[in-house]
Amino acid sequence: MGQILKEVLAANQSYAENFGAKENLSLPPSRHFAILTCMDARLDPAKFAGLTEGDAHVIRNAGGRASDDAIRSLVISYKLLGTKEWFVIHHSDCGMQLFTDRTIRGLLASSLKTASIDANGWHDSGEGEGSDEGEFIDWLTFSDLAESVAVDVKRIRNHPLVPKEIPIYGFIYDVKTGKLIEVPQATEIGKAIASESIQ
Ligand SMILES: [Zn+2]
Q1: Is 29-99+141-199 in CATH node 3.40.50.300?
Q2: Which part of the chain has CATH 3.40.1050.10?
Q3: Which of 45, 69, 77, 138 is most buried, with most CB under 10 Å away?
Q4: How far, in Å, is the centroid of ligand 1 from the Cα of 23?
Q5: Which residues contact 133 (CB under 8 A, 6 or more apart)?
Q6: Residue 124 assigned to a binding site
Q7: How far does residue 168's CA lie from ligand 1's centre (Å)?
Q8: Tens-digit pLDDT string for the chain (199 aa)
Q9: Any note on cofactor binding (predicted)?
């Protein structure tokens, strides 16, 4: 058995031994909110946002982008499971700022092996076969952090399946301090409109 597999299973065994009252948790999040954030290994939403099991939905992908699939999850989150407030949280030093769609498409076309980066940019080993399938994926890269938060909040806000009374907050998590920094223009776009004022 591989080392990582062994470690994960050992950790899980001790977690399950102390599972306690968590067996009684209900499916809908008890604090009625959802977070969309990046998969970056330095971010732990349970810690930086004070969550425990059963509290909230956490939807993660590369960049924390409001992709069609992230929106699918958010719609299920409120429509079937009752969340009422959403956070979009991108972060400083995000890997999604280190390449463009063109870059990753080129790297994949050259080889499927892991590429490397240095001061001169990305390099591919060129080993084995590559594939042009990367051309058909929108990689959702970005260059401006605050702008990407605002763009994603706007995409969610304007989606026809998202009710106007759900507030959507836009934040940047600082990987150097652990702090959440609000992106005011995003939160402004994501502001809830009280249901009585909707005609
Ligand atoms: Zn990231």
Answers
A1: no
A2: 29-99+141-199
A3: 77
A4: 32
A5: 108
A6: no
A7: 19
A8: 899 999 999 999 999 999 999 999 999 999 999 999 999 999 999 999 999 999 999 999 999 999 999 999 999 999 999 999 999 999 999 999 999 999 999 999 999 999 999 999 999 888 889 999 999 999 999 999 999 999 999 999 999 999 999 999 999 999 999 999 999 999 999 999 876 655 4
A9: Binds 1 zinc ion per subunit.
How far is residue 21 from each of residues 5, 52, 55, 81, 157, measured CA to CA in Å?
A: 27, 12, 14, 21, 37
Q: How far is the CA of 97 from the centre of ligand 1 (A)?
A: 8
Is 90 labelled a binding residue?
Answer: no
The residues near 178 (Cβ < 8 Å, ≥ 6 apart) are 48
Q: How far is the CA of 196 from the centre of ligand 1 (A)?
A: 38
